[in-house]
Amino acid sequence: MAKRQKAPEETGSWMDTYGDMVTLLLCFFVLLYSISTVDQLKWELIVKSFNPNAEKVSQIVVNQEAQEEGTEVEGAADVDLEDFEDLYYMLEEAIKENGMEGEVTLSQGDGYAFINFRDNIFFDGDSAILKEEGERVLDSFILCLDSVSSSIGEIQVLGHTSQADPDRPNNPVTDRVLSSERAARVTAYIHQNSTLDPAKLISTGYGEYRPIASFDTAEDRAKNRRVELLITRSDAVAHSLEEYYDEIYNITE
Prior knowledge:
Elements: H1 14-34, H2 40-50, H3 64-68, H4 84-97, E1 104-109, E2 112-118, H5 132-147, E3 152-160, H6 172-193, E4 201-205, H7 218-224, E5 226-233, H8 241-248
Parallel strand pairs: 3-4
Antiparallel strand pairs: 1-2, 2-5, 3-5
């Protein structure tokens, strides 16, 4: 009787599939470990870059005990000075998310970032009461500032008014008080809602005396009504406001 011939072995091997699966699992666990202390803001920026229409981003679990004691969350405390350069892009993203491209201008230079807010974002006319809309805007910017708080040397909040009548200066008392109170309100809100060292926060009111446009037209006068944030890096060389203005607005006060 002829012997039955053995069936040929399959060309593939289950070991190949098993090896691929183990390799993928290893990569997955390495990825999980690498993001175990991810910075919250950067995580949100990554997620929203894939899904811009997402209203909420899944929260990251942080050390609750550390937060209750007022210490900084791991992953946000040890920020290199190079991370200050990322602040510009974070702020730019916050502006886009809030749809404020026409209301906020953002500039950067050697060791500083500069934000110009039109005053109607934060305040109604002749008022120093911070609007709810303004608080929401500040919340998104505070998140950016907190993420690089260790590399920030100082934040100056600058309040400005505009001359209401092109031919007649404002009353100096009400003018200066209004600009100073507006700057103080914004500074106080950052103080209350940020992890930044309060000693780094400075508010100043200039009234109508640091204009960036003329007082001749309503459009130019609107440009002068503003709140500015000058954010300097901790190792940056200090400059006068006139030097910053000359670089940012291309004018010399």
